[in-house]
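#lab-general

N.A. 3:47 PM
ok so I finally got the sequence cleaned up, no stray characters, all 152 residues accounted for. can someone with queue access submit it? mine expired

B.Y. 3:52 PM
send it over

N.A. 3:53 PM
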Amino acid sequence: MGVVAALVRSSFLVNAVYAKSGREYGLTPQQGQLLCVLMPRPHGMSELGAMLGLAKSSLTGLVDRTVRNGLVQREPDPQDTRAVRVALTAQGSKLAAEFYAETCRRIEELPASLSPADRDALADLLGRVVLANEVPVVFMESDERSPGARKH
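B.Y. 4:20 PM
back already:
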C-alpha cells in the first residue's frame, strides 16, 4: 500500500474509533474534539476555530450546543475584556477525561499486531509528519495532561 492510501485509510480508521467513543459518551465527534482541546486549558474562540478548522458560525453553534449540555462555559478573557474564552465545566472535565482515556485505549489497540520496535518507528514517522505540517495539539499525549508537562 502506498503512503497516500495508508494515511487516508488510517485517518478513516482513527475517525471511526473517535466517533464510536463519542457515541458511547453521548458526544458528537466535534464535541469530543472540543472537550479534548479544552482539557489542558481554556481557549479563545478564534484560537479554537483555528485549531478545529471551523468557521466562526460553525464553532459558535458547536460551543452553544455544548454549553446547553453543561459541558463547557464561556468566561471573560482576562487579557481582552471584549473577548471570551471557552472552558470545561466540572461535568465537562469529568466526561472529557473519561472520553479521552477510552479513545486512547481504543486507538492504542489499532497497531497491536506490530512489534514494539515497529510501533516506535510508526510513532516517530507519524510524529515527524505532524510536526513538519505544524498540526495544532488537538489531542494530547497522556503525559501532557499534568501541569508543566512537555508540549509538542
